[in-house]
């Protein structure tokens, strides 16, 4: 058996690093070789974790500190006056009252040791309260866009030109000022040198800005001779594992916050020779929008050109 003299290899063996499962687009990626980042990026973890897990973590920290300081009080008997119930349970409940800065008054420190431990625990409780308050405010005040993206994209003729079309809507139905859209395609490709690459291709839109995005928005890319999709079909897109990423952003007129959202469409979610079902109806000058039909797609009678399958 041979031993390696490479110190970096010995360090990797001494410090094993776990695997992490993430999602990039619609792909599941398993990464390894990075150190655990929860303690190193605690704020980001607290912002991304679910509400039940966050509350469970806060309760766990609260109980751990209560037990820890309860043990410190229990180490020196008679440092707490009027201890009730006697024993460790009384020390634990006094620790709970001290950490929460409640202080009912019936139990109180009566020695220098007891006052010192209580002072440290009160400072810890105030620090925890400040951190939890800031974290809760940050989570509640974080801007969230309620943009609705259609489940499918369609390819259909529009003004005599083959067009890739997406549909989006503002679920809040308030005004989002200066909304902007960007469309990109990710696909596997091989360079002339034989290098495999995941290429990002920008797809220009017919209109990439919306002055008052409050209801719905049809976002279109024309497949003409200048389009990167001019030679693509549903089969070639699936062979290259193509994914379309539609990004929307804008300023919420109500809060003044910038809203950002995105929709992701694999090649299988693109319906060729199809159209979105109409969701607008007019009755006596009043427009009615039926969002129950928002994701519905109907086939067209004739297949478009440009190599699209019928």
What does this structure look like?
Helices cover 28% and strands 34% of the residues. The relative contact order is 0.11. Helix 3 packs antiparallel against helix 5. With 310 residues, it is an alpha+beta fold.
How are the SSEs ordered, and which strands pair?
Elements: H1 7-14, E1 20-24, E2 27-31, H2 42-48, H3 51-75, E3 80-81, H4 88-99, E4 108-109, H5 112-141, E5 147-149, E6 153-158, E7 161-170, E8 176-190, E9 196-203, E10 209-213, E11 216-222, H6 234-239, E12 243-252, E13 258-266, E14 270-272, E15 274-276, E16 280-283, E17 286-289, E18 297-299
Parallel strand pairs: 6-14
Antiparallel strand pairs: 1-2, 3-4, 5-7, 6-7, 7-11, 8-9, 8-10, 8-12, 12-13, 15-18, 16-17
Helix pairs in contact: 3-4, 3-5
Shape: elongated
**N-to-C order of helices and strands:** HEEHHEHEHEEEEEEEHEEEEEEE
Oligomer: single chain
Task: Quickly give the structural class.
Answer: alpha+beta
Q: How much β-strand is present in the residues?
A: 25-35%
Give a count of the beta strands, DSSP E runs of length 2 or more. Answer: 18
Helicity level, as a percent range?
25-40%
Mean pLDDT: 86
Rg from alpha-carbon coordinates: 30 Å
